[in-house]
Amino acid sequence: MASAPGSRPNDRSLDRATPAALGIVSATGVAPPPKRLVIAVDGPSASGKGTLAKRLAAHFRLPHLDTGLLYRAVGWKALQSGQPPAEVAARLSPDDLADPALRTDEAGQQASKVGAIPEVRANLLKFQKEFSSQALGAVLDGRDIGTVICPDAPVKLFVTASPEARAERRYQELRARGVDTIRPRVLAEMAERDRRDSERAAAPLKAAPDAWLLDTTEMDADAAFAAAVAFIEGKGFRGAAP
Ligand code: DC
Fold first, then answer.
1. Ligand 1 centroid to 108 CA: how many Å?
2. How confident is the model over 183-211, as pLDDT tens digits?
3. Is the pLDDT of residue 85 over 90?
4. 83 lies in which domain range?
5. 36 CA distance to ligand 1 centroid (A)?
6. Among 156, 228, 167, 219, which residue's Cα sits nearest to residue 194?
């Protein structure tokens, strides 16, 4: 990760951590795939991209990075500490990624706000690029993986679903976690985040021209996974036997 002007990454900075030390790696590392495989998964929130990315990583035995977690950690830590977000991004450590509060919608909104700051994105770039350069390959999910982080990835998926379907999923997820909310509020907050992520000047959410569009509006997680595996295996990559 590049240092912000006037700052020095500390010894616990992400750039010095191995992927395994981050605890965000899902490689089982038994039999490597025959060809190096980088899978870039982008899409809006609650499209199903995170679940899909995790399952693809297990299937193709690759390390997985949820890049949204990096932005969530920066946004949350900056809010708590009052430090400038770019500085937080330059000094982010694996410990910062472990806070359960990062999974909340409030942290998601903070992540979306700091994600619009070019210096924050620049300071998170090196770590993501290095993660994607591992020997076997990698699966990364986010908003700009196919466009900025891994423009040469052999597999790019853009996962989407209608705003109503995504809001309903998020609503059910929040209810299951015991969060008291109402559907219109979930839909409005999602629309706000979509707009901010898509309209920002720095690496906006958009499909790479060579991305494969996967619309999960009418699909459950199993159907989305099966469709993605068929697409990737159709390109000559082989995963683990089911
Ligand atoms: O994927 P997620 O919902 O955890 O991401 C939270 C926010 O972080 C998202 O609304 C925008 C930002 N983000 C980003 O700007 N770039 C990424 N590669 C990943 C996330």
1. 7
2. 999 999 999 999 999 999 999 999 999 99
3. yes
4. 35-233
5. 26
6. 167
Using DSSP's 3-state secondary structure scheme, residue 37 falls into strand
Q: For residues 121 and 202, is the Cβ–Cβ distance under 8 A? A: yes
For residue 156, what is the domain's CATH number? 3.40.50.300
- Total structural domains in the chain? 1
Q: How many angstroms is it from 114 CA to the middle of ligand 1? A: 9
**Strands (DSSP E) found in 150-225:** 155-160, 212-215
Task: Write the residue with the smallest CA distance to atom 10 of ligand 1.
Answer: 112
Query: What's 187's DSSP letter?
Result: H
**Rounded to whole angstroms, how far apart are CA atoms 235 and 3?**
38
**Which tokens is 37 given?**
């495989």
Report residue 113 as tokens. Answer: 């706000």
Cα→Cα distances 45→137, 149, 196, Å = 24, 19, 12
